[in-house]
Design goal:
The structure is a homotrimer of 344-residue chains.
Chain A (H helix, E strand, L loop, with lengths): L6 E6 L9 H7 L9 E5 L9 H15 L6 E2 L10 H18 L5 E4 L5 H17 L8 E6 L2 H5 L1 H7 L5 E6 L1 H7 L13 H14 L2 E3 L7 E4 L2 E4 L1 H13 L5 E3 L2 H10 L4 H19 L5 E3 L2 E3 L1 H20 L1 H7 L2 H9 L4
Parallel strand pairs in A: 1-2, 1-10, 2-3, 4-5, 5-6, 6-7
Antiparallel strand pairs in A: 8-9, 11-12
Helix pairs in contact in A: 2-3, 3-4, 6-8, 9-10, 11-12, 12-13
């Protein structure tokens, strides 16, 4: 089945508030387009060092109540760093605790700051060990890694090829740490977009059949005349750029961003209608013994067919997980066509 | 001898017209700057599935009459797809038929949608087998591949290194299929230019000593006030960009594009005069026992000499294949200098 | 100790003037911000073929007098070319002569036009042999290579990984030769910036722990209304772009460029104050048993600490080599804080 990966929303798992699980609770109880496809309770950079233990406790405490009703997938981000054993040791303990106590409510684990392929293999080994100790089925927990160090970028191709023989299911860009590691300086407040990296990330994840997410957009709000506005336009620019180059989903830091990115990464009505029309015409042609047909000037054959089928499969996956989203976006006839059309 | 590779013109080998070989005939009988350096009778995406057999028949039928007079090289594009055995089987049959029936009129075969290096090796093997069966000399037919899939981009370096031990002679970018395979969506009608890929393509083909072509430019015409114009400016922008980054030649979909790209990829009068002057001064200096000379502020030595010599070799190759082109572009004195200057 | 690599200034080692060592002398006696971190007496492209021998003589003659007082490091650029044995033979002789006669005054050697990893290994071997013959300690002389050929770009990752087991200490971009080798043509006078290459250069050198320099900026002056001006703005744009993407230092062709690039690649007062404040707060937090602290909205922990510490280490290295530069840039209190703060 097509898996949804439109949004990767991090939620600090413990914050210095009366309810330290405030953001975790908010993510787990989100509704409609605000529900991220991947909810990532953040035990790493989003949580202060003095609150790491409480962060793990919060995840262990909240998941049994909320995970069964949550419509997305859940993958906590633990501590890890290719160049610091103390981080890897704390991360290993966090993975063990999570797998052991709430493993059945998790889809996977996110490892930040991985290095070369050997370090990614080591993280996969830690997860496999924890899974086995917890009595979970082999492969029950998949993993994603944040691409944010020079050695990981250097080994990107090997890391993606590793996915074909392992539980590695996704890569996520981490531009802040990446820029710092390369020694980049934001001289006029602008960080590079790292176009070469994004192109390679889209290519290698596509070749490996795993998902790719873009990096966080942290200018959440901007001010004008003393009033603070949600920066919808800036975020849309980034998300649309990611969609244009084939990055599957976008990082969200806020429910507003989640709702926005979920919509941008969902086929629109026109796009769906256009692709359905082509599939229907191709199905007719095949019944009449022809191997291809031209619809609105574009040839549809076995090869191009796959692209149109992908649109339909995505819509079916969204409908399966979030019927309220498809009900809002498409009229009844269009949705019915998407659900019933025959796919080769 | 320097081989010409300014233009790669695809011509559908069969179209639903009274004369189904209309575009093939047009390409084979083109004259002057409209003659492509590589003419590519297209049996793949340009030809409808129901007309594939007729497309092969057309090539087999037309080449004996026209190929001997045709001033460019001829390489049909057959069907192929790294992820679909049915395409590879059809392509194998097409290669056999072409090599067996008109092999002596062909320079090579173009394979689309190749995957990783193993798939490129497989295509090379199919061509070698067909060549032997047809009784052609070993290596009589070379091959080019279209770079348009994620695994081929991932293995670009290995594919180019394979060229040094094989019949692989060129790579051609295929942006439409490439963008679709990566899942890129043209949200506002714009497809990415894939700058990272183009840079790598120029580098790896240069390192391997094979030729590189850019992708097709499909906005052939634009409309203004109800009138349709040939989009010369848009195509020139793309071709000049390709020339700037060292892509050897450009894809053409139309004789007008061929004429335009042939001119842009040909040294201009000023460029030729400038490089000849440097070579002549260097030759004089060498006769006087000096290893270098400064001309118009630029030092010319054995190393830089090669660049200037390339300009002259290209002009000689054009003059050899298309004397009408050099006659049109250069005055007699300049051309005579290019043909007679001594090259080390 | 942090090594300084803000500037890579080439100085032709012999020019057709009364004093053929004019530019070499000027570099060796430069003062203040005009002192390059790397001074590169150029025996390669900056020196005419007929003056190569005199160029080597000049270096051998001047270094004993000036090198002991010179505040930067000295690495001559010798002849070399992966595709021409004559260049490699001349370069080998030049390395031998330099190591034998003035080896104790050199920090290393710069090899241009290297090819694939095997060619880089060969250059390293030549240097090792010369070092041994000269009776210098093993590793006394390090090496840098100019990245300016297609095969070197193709093997960039392997070349940088070689650094971890060798004397290779830096890579420098050479855009003019690189563009020529790829066959790029400056159709409208503009050369590509080669963004993909620069991104990869920054990444791979960071992963290997070696330094990276950008390419030369040759539009040193521009004219307006008949008057020639130093092109400070154009050079600043290039140097700042390099700093933004993590290229460590910039190529200089002139003392004015050296002074400018040294300043841009030096932490500013505000940057230093900001990072010191974070380190001081983190040190306080650690003394009180906390592992992290939030300063001006940014969390400082062991991981982010490294970035702030780098700023201080760079300032200490500059103060050590160039006390006049730190005295000019920072007020006494700020400098004192930078020199005395405790670094973990």
């Amino acid at each position: 089945m097509t898996r949804l990966s439109r949004t990767f929303q991090t939620a600090p798992a413990a914050v210095p508030r009366d309810n330290s699980a405030k953001f975790l609770d908010s993510g787990l109880t989100s509704e409609g387009f605000q529900t991220p496809d991947w909810l990532v309770p953040d035990i790493e950079d989003g949580t202060a060092p003095s609150m790491k233990a409480e962060a793990v406790d919060n995840v262990v405490d909240r998941l049994p109540d909320h995970a069964p009703e949550f419509a997305g997938e859940i993958r906590p981000r633990v501590e890890w760093a290719y160049d610091d054993a103390a981080f890897r040791e704390r991360g290993t303990e966090q993975v063990r605790r999570l797998a052991g106590d709430v493993g059945e409510h998790l889809d996977g684990i996110v490892f930040p700051k991985v290095g070369r392929i050997d370090d990614v293999r080591a993280a996969a080994g830690v997860l496999a060990d924890a899974e086995r100790e917890a009595g979970l089925a082999d492969g029950a927990l998949d993993m994603a890694v944040i691409l944010e160090t020079a050695p990981a970028r250097s080994d990107l191709r090997e890391i993606c090829r590793f996915a074909s023989e392992s539980r590695l299911a996704g890569l996520v860009f981490g531009p802040v740490d990446y820029t710092a590691e390369l020694g980049g300086r934001a001289l006029h407040g602008e960080r590079p977009r790292w176009d070469g990296l994004l192109e390679a990330l889209s290519n290698e994840t596509s070749a490996a059949g795993v998902v790719a997410f873009g990096g966080p957009f942290d200018q959440l709000f901007h001010e004008r005349a003393g009033v603070s506005y949600y920066n919808a336009e800036g975020y849309a620019d980034q998300v649309e750029h990611e969609a244009t180059i084939g990055i599957d989903g976008s990082w969200s830091l806020h429910p507003k961003q989640t709702a926005q990115a979920n919509r941008i990464h969902t086929p629109g009505s026109e796009e769906l209608d256009r692709d359905l029309t082509k599939i229907e015409a191709f199905n007719d042609a095949k019944r009449e013994g022809t191997g291809a047909v031209v619809v609105s000037g574009q040839m549809v054959d076995e090869a191009t067919y796959k692209n149109f089928a992908n649109t339909v499969l995505t819509v079916r996956a969204i409908d399966d997980a979030h019927p309220e989203q498809t009900a809002e976006l498409y009229d009844d006839d269009l949705l019915e066509r998407a659900l019933s059309v025959e796919l080769a």
